Amino acid sequence: MSDFTARIQLILGREALKKLETARVALFGLGGVGGYALEALVRSGVGNLLLVDNDCFSISNLNRQILALRSTLGCRKTETARERALAINPDCRVEIRDCLFLPETRDLFDFSGFDYVIDAIDTVTAKLCLIRAAQEAGVPVISCMGTGNKTDPSQLRIDRIDRTSVDPLARVMRREYKKRGLAPFSVVYSTEEPMNVREEEKAVIAEEISLRAAQGLSRKDIPGSAVFVPAAAGLLLAQKVVTDLIAR
């Protein structure tokens, strides 16, 4: 076992670390939530990772995304994530895919060899498609609900989707997963009421609003964000995954 895991071995034990070293985890989304989930997985000794995202870092990511630095602006999130993972643990086996997980790309992924799937992506359609694929492969999946327009990480919870409340994204997911005949799944969600975006402050993101409008996206698709909640949500995702993996 690598020396960098010595401190965590003191509390989890050698056998648990061996399980983590051989575990295979697929992480979808490497933004504010997914970046911190990756950080915790690698530092906990998870030895095999599939990292999926199609985005590059922009300056608006700097306030909350651990992988976003002045030096990584314009870089692909997958490549940056792999470099960081290997800088922490050179023995980690990291595969990357530069794409979105959508119904059209679903067949590019085989989850049968994975031990866990983490959903840290944004859109409802992609989330539901990913959860279905994981469930059909018999692989545990945990999904992150909304972290935008929130500032209090103490109100984050881990539970099943059918037991959630308050979170607007969780409300949509509760309705949609039932329509699609999916089984309940684990989520990280917040009981904090989302804050209203300040209309008078929208000038600071005028360029991003214009870009999204050109892509046919709504202004409402740009939530306010602070580092506290997405970071804590990513850590909770990783904590749940690590705990479940060593309990196998």
Précis, in short:
This protein is α/β, with parallel strands linked by helices.
Structure description:
This protein is of the alpha/beta class. The protein has one domain (about 5-195, about 225-245): Rossmann fold. The chain contains eight helices and seven strands; from the N terminus they run ααβαβαββαββαβαα. It has helices spanning about 5-10, 15-20, 30-45, 75-90, 125-135, 170-180, 205-215, 230-245, and strands at about 25-30, 50, 95, 115-120, 140-145, 155-160, 185-190. A seven-stranded mixed beta sheet has the order 3-2-1-4-5-7-6, with helices on both faces.
Shape: globular
Q: What does the radius of gyration come to?
A: 18 Å
> Which homologous superfamily in CATH is the superfamily?
NAD(P)-binding Rossmann-like Domain
Unreliable stretches: none
Oligomeric category: single chain
Amount of beta strand: 5-15%
Helix content: 25-40%
- The order of strands across the largest sheet is 3-2-1-4-5-7-6
Distance between the termini: 19 Å
Q: Largest sheet at a glance?
A: 7 strands, mixed
The ordered H/E elements are HHEHEHEEHEEHEHH
- CATH topology tier name: Rossmann fold
Tell me the number of helical segments per DSSP (H or I, 4 or more residues long).
8
CATH structural architecture: 3-Layer(aba) Sandwich
Averaging pLDDT over every residue, what do you get? 93
**Based on DSSP secondary structure assignment, what is the total number of beta strands?**
7
